Structures are given as structure tokens and as C-alpha cells.
Amino acid sequence: MKIINSIAFRLIVATLIAVSVLITGMSTVSYYNQKTLLEERQQQQLQHAVSRLELNLPTAVWNFEQERIVNILKSEQASEHIAFIEFINDKDEVSATAGDNKTPQKMSVPLVFVEDDESSSIGQLAIYIDDNSIHSVLGDLLMTSVIEALSLGLLIILITYTLYKMLIAKPLLKLTLALENMDRGQSDLTHRLHVGNKDEFERVSQGFNRFVEMIQAIVRAFQQSVAKTSIQAMQANEDARESIQLIEAQQQETDQMATAITQMSSSAGEVASRVNQTAESAEQARKDTQAVALILQETVTSIEQLALQLKSSEHAINSLDENVQGIVSVMDVINGVAEQTNLLALNAAIEAARAGEHGRGFAVVADEVRGLAQRTQASTLEIKEKIDGLRTSTNTAVQSTLASFELSATAVDNAKRSEASITDILDATSSISSMSEQIATAVNEQSHVAEELSKSVNQIVSLGYDNTESLNKVSDTIQALLSLSKDLDELAQRFIT
């Protein structure tokens, strides 16, 4: 433990602070009282000196006795409170001095000569006050006070420490040793503190003894409980071991039965799966056959509609060819008109050239008309070429339509024959699907029973494993309890009861 945290250190520091404050206050009061006394004495002596100077010096000054003036000043300057004196005449001239150095403190005294009840000013005195004697006395007093304070403080500290050791430290040490003994191995709970003086430590000792008695009773009861717990834990551990052995034997028999049932369930499940696959395949074949039949019916209908559409297309193409022939006739007329327009525009341009300047505007219009006629001729030629190509394509389409009509008639006959065969296939697949469903139902019922039995047995096996695991956990818990009881017993044996 650090000394700064000890009670003795804190008590000494508190005492030292209190004594220091007290002595400092007393020394301060004494210092200022002595200072006041010395200053009053100094003022009295200065007043006496001034009175003597006012009595003796005016006559010597009036009679111009310079030597006597100097002697009077020197005799008064010899005082410990006067550092320097100078006489200033009525002309403000320094006529006599006494002393070596001037001080900041100065006192002026006017001098008056009285003769036959008449007063005459003859000058003034300047007295410079010397405080060195007062400072010396006060310094000695301060040093003495410090020495006395230190001596008294040291004495009080020694007295306080001695009283602390006798009245506090010794009883406290006994209590501390008793408490530390509780923290060591083989702690003696039978030990009691001695109750002596009628003070605070007696109350602490009594409280400590009552606390130890309570701890002693608790430890005794704790030791008995630990012993009983150890015995019961050992018995429970033996019972758990026997239960684990019985459950393990039962578990082996149940595992064998569960394996056999699982194999049977697996075989039945596999058979049911195969039958279900067969039934599903037959059903799928029936559905596919029905779909094919529907598709064939739709195909026959579509081909018949296609034949009708092809017939209509043939008539439409023939009508288109007639219309195209009419367009060709119109284009021939347009081409003839364009040639006539071109000739007229050419004649108009020639006439405009003959007219000269007056026919220039007409010539421009004639050129535009001729250009338009030429473009019209070019367009009609291009349209005619495309119409010729269209007529060729139309003839080809007519021939293809006739060929497609013949093929559609053949496809309708083949589709009707295929529809009869598909009807026979539908009857066969329906019969296979019905028998497969009956077989699958029987096998599924057998498989379901086997699965339920397998689940029940597996549940029994799982519960057996859970019981074994629980008993193992109980056994581990009991082992931990035994270990804990042993540790608690070792801890309890550390106390002497």
C-alpha cells in the first residue's frame, strides 16, 4: 500500500495543515502588532526630535551660529530613525546638512524665531526618515516566528503520530490481520477478535465476530449439503449408466427391424414407381394420340379451306390479269398524249425563238412542258415493264395454285385414312392406362402401409437415439456435478469450522 493512501499520512497532513494555518494566523497578528508598535515609537521619537529642533535651532540661525547649527543637526541625525537632515533658509538655500543618504520618506518642518511676542520665519527643516531599524526588527521577528512554527508543527506531528500508533494503528492492525487470515488457505473460522476497550474498535470487533459466526454456520451447512449432493450424484450416475445399457440393447433390435421394413418399403416403392411410370406413359400416349387425332382433323379442315382459298385465288388472279391488261391500254393512251405534248412543246419553243425577246417567257414554259412530257413517257415505259413482269408472275401463280389444289385433295384422302388408324390406337392405350392405374393403386396402398410402418419404426429409433443422447447428457451433467461437488468440498475444507 502506498504511504500516501495510509490513514497516518492523511492524519498527519491534516494536522500539519491545521497547525500551519493556526500558527500563520498567530504570527501574522503578532507581526502586524509589532509593526504598529514600532511605527508609533518611531513617530514619537521623530516628534521629540522636531520639538528639540524647533526649540534650539531658531536661536542659532537667528544669531548666524553656523557651527552650532551643524552640531544641533548632527546630534538629532544620530537618531536611528533619521537618515538625513537639511536646513533650508528663508531664501530657499540649503545652509546646513547632517547625514549621508536621503530616503524616500521626507518630513518638512517650518522654523520660526520668536522674540518679544513677534514671530519671524527663518526657513524650514527637511527630515528624511530611516526605516531600516524597523525592518530589521520585523525581519528578526518573522524569522523567529517561522522557527517557532516549524518546531511547534514538528512537535505536534510527533505527538499526533504517537497517539495514532497507540490508539488507532495497533487495534486496526489486529483487525487487519484477522481479515487477511480469512483470505489465506486453511482459514480459521473459529478465530475471534478480542473485545477490550469500550470504544469504536469494540463495536467493529463485535460486528466482525458476529459476521464470522454467521459465515461459520453457513460453511458448515454448505459442507453437509456438498456431501449429500455428492452421494446423490453418484447414485444418479449409476442409474444413468444402467439405463443407457438397456436403451442401447433395445436400440439394436429396433435398428434391425427398421432396416428390414425400410428394405420392404423401398422395394414396394420401386414397384409402385415403375407401375406409375407405365401408367403415366400410357396416359401420355393416349393424350398424344388424341392430340394427333385432333391435329389431323384440323389439318383436314385446313386443307379443305386451303383448296377453297386456292380456287378463290385462281379467280382473283384471272381478274387481276384482266385489270392489268386494261392498265396497259390506258398506259398506251398516256404515252400517245405525252408524245403529242412533246411535239406541241417543241413547236411552241420554235415559235418563242422566232418572237425573240417577247417570247422568252413562253419559251421557258414550253421547255418545262416538254421536260414534263419526256418524264411522263419515261415513267409510262417503266410502268409498262413492271406490268409485264406482274403478268408473268400472275401466270406462274395460277399454275402453282392449280398444282396445290390437286395436292390438297390427295392430302385430305391420306389424313382421313390416318384418322381411322389413330382411333384404334386410342382404344388400345385407354385399356393399358386403365389396367396400369389399377395395378398402381394396389401397389401404392401396399407402399403407403410400408412407409407408415417404416416411419413409426424410424420414429421409435429416433426416440431411442434421443433418449440415449439425453441419458449421456445427464451422465455428463452428473459427472460435472460430481466434479463441482469435489471442487466445492475442497473449497469448504479450506475453512476450519
TrEMBL record:
Domain Methyl-accepting transducer, first and last residues per copy: 225-461
Chain ranges passing through the membrane: 7-32, 141-164
GO annotation, biological process: chemotaxis; signal transduction
Cellular component, GO annotation: membrane
GO molecular function, one term: transmembrane signaling receptor activity
Keywords: Membrane, Transducer, Transmembrane, Transmembrane helix
PROSITE patterns found in the cross-reference section: CHEMOTAXIS_TRANSDUC_2, HAMP
Ranges for domain HAMP: 166-220
Location in the cell: Membrane
Database matches in SUPFAM superfamilies: Methyl-accepting chemotaxis protein (MCP) signaling domain (SSF58104)
Family: Belongs to the methyl-accepting chemotaxis (MCP) protein family.
UniProt-recorded name of the protein: Methyl-accepting chemotaxis protein
Species this protein is from: Shewanella psychrophila
